[in-house]
Amino acid sequence: MAFILRRPFALTATLRTTAPKSAQSVTLRAFHNTPLKPQPNFFSPKTPSISTSQNVLRFRTTFRRSYQQAAYNPVSHGDLRQRLIYGAGIFGATLLGINFIFNRETREDGGMPDFERRYLNDTFMHTGLGIGIIGMAARALHMNGWSFRLMSANPWLVLGVGLVGSIGTMYGTMATRPENYVQKYALWTAFNVTQAMLLSPLFFMHPAILARAGLYTAGMMGSIAFVGATAKQEKYLYLGGPLLAGVAIVALSGLAPLVVPATAARTLMWTENIWLYGGLAVFGGFTLYDVQKVLHHARMAERGMIPKDAVNESISLELDFLNIFIRMVQILAMSQNRRK
């Protein structure tokens, strides 16, 4: 209907062209043509020479929208259930492979105690809630035009304000004790909103790319978290130092386009690969380290050495998710551009 309203004379012009010349002066009148000449037998009933069904068919054929997508073909696209089964099989095989390679030595205490399981589940719940807040806030900001203003701003200003906002709210959340839950959750929400403000331009990407990147990120982190939860106690806590050095290299490679001239194409290519694939490896390792750190803190909290604080634990896992997700989006976007 909206298409017809933009072209108010389209219907009459189409019916006029489809009807025979002998019947045009009797059965049809276009408002954008010359006035109809008076005829003595104008109101006499006459049988039209073209049926209404044919007119409707010709009208639909003429004004079919060119931007409509092709109909879904189950043969070419594959059955949805079959694709889900294949995806689940690939995920299960990957999980078993990672578990076999990195988790040959399982726990010796008969499995995860109940207090560790509750603390880990509480941490994962806060992680999922934080990711949800970031996604909804980023979407709302993007729809209100925040992404355009952010992309047109000075990159150094965005970097400085973003770092100050992110680090300030993160350390404010961590420094607040769990008993002061109002201030703690307010600072935690501010941290998530700050991340949403920085990540809202991702919604310029195609929604299918964002959905696939989110699915791949969840699968990657889920499999690594399973390995960390079922491995021996404190087996991967030694990775903290090497991962910190790796993330420093990845961060410097991410800042390279701001200081390296555009003529150094080979250098920029290497720094981009380090930022993408090196970042995936580093933050995958951080996921393994953070899961084992959560279980270690659960044991310390059970002894009364530290307070239970699932909000602080979730911040590390949120940062792991966001860094892996951003790289997944860029890898999928580059892969799509190479196919064109």
Structural notes for this entry:
The longest helix has 38 residues, at 265-302. The chain is 73% helix and 0% strand. The radius of gyration is 31 Å and the shape is globular. The chain is mostly helical and 340 residues long. The chain starts with a helix and ends with a helix. The chain contains 14 helices and no strands. It has a domain at 114-339.
Please supply descriptive tags for the structure shown above.
mainly alpha, single chain, disordered N terminus, 340 residues
Secondary structure elements and their pairing?
Blueprint: H1 2-6, H2 10-18, H3 21-27, H4 52-62, H5 74-77, H6 80-102, H7 114-143, H8 146-151, H9 155-175, H10 181-199, H11 207-230, H12 240-259, H13 265-302, H14 310-339
Helix pairs in contact: 2-4, 6-11, 7-10, 7-13, 7-14, 9-10, 11-13, 11-14, 12-13, 13-14
Organism: Trematosphaeria pertusa
Pfam family, one: Bax1-I
Protein name: Bax inhibitor family protein
For the sheet with most strands, the description reads:
none
Number of strands: 0
- Number of helical regions: 14
Query: What's the assembly state of these chains?
Result: single chain
